[in-house]
Design goal:
By secondary structure, this protein is mostly beta strands. 1% of the residues lie in helices and 44% in strands. A 5-stranded antiparallel beta sheet has the order 4-7-8-9-10, with no helix packed on it. It has a 4-stranded antiparallel beta sheet with strand order 2-3-5-6, with no helix packed on it. It has a 4-stranded antiparallel beta sheet with strand order 11-12-13-14, with no helix packed on it. The radius of gyration is 22 Å and the shape is elongated.
Length: 425
């Protein structure tokens, strides 16, 4: 992908990490907003998105996608009564999971800024794009409800029981138990759990939840801030985790996500009017998790992609888990330019082993990343030399040089993304 969420690095100054061609390995050729979880049936991958009748897409390699028509030629029968303002079969932010021997696709109908919304569900035995059967309404909200029934996420807990998280703005992200036999609200359990909100940050810009169970923890991903503004979008993905499916979900600092907690998982540097370089993709949101062939991937959309003419694009990136159990998106190898957040300079290998700041562009200014685990990377330039702390010392005055990579501690760099989308090295 031409970008990567502008990492800033701290070598005495913050820097932006800007990807160069070729495109990142897991940027797809599909323009889709609010993608569902990517799923696989046989040798074919499927994903669903916002649009008329729920657009369906298939792929055999996760990168090149083919439009397979809408799930619904006409809006489901319940929509006219429950959401009368949605008159054009515009479905929002679907999600999909397999349980009880068939696929369950959850979707929403609403209108912009309204709580008059509903989440429905359709089933399919095979993912044949022409074989969906609508099963009707699952949850509905109205003008007097303090939450909004859109952005569904269907997932299974550690025992295999299905749950549905949903919500956008208003009072935040909710969670309900699902009856596995019907795919609808569990009989005898009408509890609507509050699992995340931003009560101290009007207008409570939180939506697009995704819950994933791994190694004894439920990780809750949500999107914060504003979508749909091209390169000015401020969408970013936050996370917290819990031992219990119903919460509380805490971020890395221990703050409850019901009180505005949320550790940054993936952000970007967008166009804020400052004139500084922006990422080649801006506005990550709508996370989903795919397990495939022993690997785990996180899917998400970017609101704006420079190399797609400003379209919204579906991305998949490798997901790994730190030794403390927190998930981490692995940055693709690149190559990248390391650009100062304070001035438009790149870091390049100079004469001999010295590292200098030089104007962007030109030879010697490209770096490739190699993931080492727990957030650490090696950075290697086009000459095959690695960014290195001389003598492997922790002293702040130690010189930074380029030297052959030998796996030394002074050649392992921790990349931490900051809340403004830059990164610290």
């Amino acid at each position: 992908m031409q970008k990567t969420h502008s990492p800033a690095l701290l070598l005495l100054a913050l820097l932006l990490l800007l990807a160069l061609p070729p495109a990142r390995a897991m940027e797809t050729d599909m323009s889709a907003r609010d993608p569902s979880t990517v799923v696989k049936s046989g040798g074919t991958y499927w994903v669903y998105g916002t649009g008329r009748g729920i657009p369906q897409f298939s792929s055999t390699d996760r990168r090149h996608w083919t439009f397979q028509g809408p799930v619904f030629s006409n809006a489901p029968a319940w929509v006219a009564d429950a959401v009368p303002a949605n008159m054009h079969n515009n479905a929002w932010a679907p999600d999909i999971h397999f349980f009880q021997g068939r696929w369950h696709l959850y979707y929403a109908y609403s209108s912009f800024g309204s709580k008059v919304s509903g989440i429905g569900m359709a089933t399919n035995d095979s993912l044949d794009p022409k074989s969906w059967t609508d099963q009707g309404l699952v949850v509905r909200t109205g003008k007097d409800t303090n939450y909004n029934a859109i952005d569904p996420c269907i997932f299974l807990d550690g025992t295999g029981k299905p749950w549905l998280s949903f919500g956008s703005y208003f009072s935040g992200i909710k969670l309900i138990a699902i009856d596995p036999a019907t795919g609808k609200s569990a009989v005898g359990d009408a509890t609507v759990y509050n699992i995340a909100t931003r009560p101290h940050t009007p207008p409570n810009a939180i939506e697009a939840s995704c819950v994933y169970y791994h190694a004894g923890y439920y990780t809750l991903f949500v999107a914060w801030d504003g979508c749909c503004a091209g390169p000015k979008s401020t969408y970013n993905i936050r996370m917290g985790r819990s031992r219990s499916v119903t919460g509380p979900y805490l971020d890395k600092a221990g703050k409850d996500m019901r009180e505005g907690g949320g550790t940054l998982f993936l952000g970007s540097v967008g166009d804020n009017g400052s004139g500084r370089p922006i990422d080649d993709e801006v506005g990550a949101g709508h996370a989903g998790i795919l397990e495939d062939g022993g690997d785990t991937y996180v899917s998400y959309h970017e609101e704006w992609a420079r190399d797609r003419g400003g379209k919204t694009t579906l991305n998949l990136s490798k997901l790994t888990w730190d030794t403390d159990g927190w998930p981490r998106l692995v940055l693709d190898p690149g190559p990248y330019q390391l650009v100062s957040a304070l001035a438009t300079h790149g870091i390049a290998a100079g004469v001999g082993t010295a590292v200098q700041t030089l104007p962007t562009g030109g030879p010697g200014r490209q770096w490739t990343l190699g993931y080492l685990g727990d957030g650490f990377y090696r950075l290697v330039n086009a000459a095959g030399k690695a960014l290195s702390v001389s003598g492997d010392t922790a002293k702040t005055s130690a010189p930074v040089q380029v030297m052959p990579y030998q796996g030394r501690t002074g050649q392992q760099w921790y990349l931490q993304q900051n809340d403004d989308g830059t990164w610290t090295l």
